[in-house]
Design a protein that fits this description.
The chain is α/β, with parallel strands linked by helices. 38% of the residues lie in helices and 27% in strands. Helix 4 (89-100) crosses helix 5 (123-130).
């Protein structure tokens, strides 16, 4: 059993597939950190600061909604910590895992299939390749 599990979500139904796995692997006194990472735009010559700030606010709001949605699906007896961060998803997931002293990351593979699943850049793939702790990759039903 694991004491602390990082459970990333992007709000998709695919991410929800990892809920049961994390619940089955957490120790009775452990905690699950439901994490969503909002990307961050920076202003450029083509976008005003106001427009970029608004886009960043929207992404952060969507990340918070994704965390709240997933956290609500757990039984009340599971210790859930909700967390929203800003950054590059794979890098931030691994950074949070390190900072929080997590034992495991449970992440679901994307919904991509066919030729798309071979494209480098998948968050789950990057987490799997760069994590310094155990990673459980949960396959979705569409792959």
């Amino acid at each position: 059993m694991y004491k602390k599990i990082i459970l990333p979500t992007d709000g998709s139904t695919y991410a929800d597939l990892s809920i049961e796995r994390a619940t089955n692997l957490i120790a009775d006194d452990g905690e699950i950190i439901v994490l969503s990472v909002a990307g961050k735009f920076t202003s450029s010559a083509f976008q005003s600061r106001k427009r970029v700030r608004k886009a960043n606010e929207v992404m952060k709001k969507e990340a918070k909604m994704a965390v709240d949605k997933m956290a609500a699906k757990f039984d009340d007896d599971v210790n859930i910590i909700k967390m929203v961060k800003t950054g590059f998803p794979a890098e931030t997931i691994n950074q949070v895992a390190e900072e929080e002293g997590a034992d495991l990351i449970v992440i679901t593979s994307s919904g991509k299939s066919g030729i798309h699943k071979f494209i480098i850049g998948s968050v789950a793939e990057k987490v799997l390749k760069t994590s310094e702790i155990d990673v459980l990759l949960v396959h979705n039903n569409d792959e």
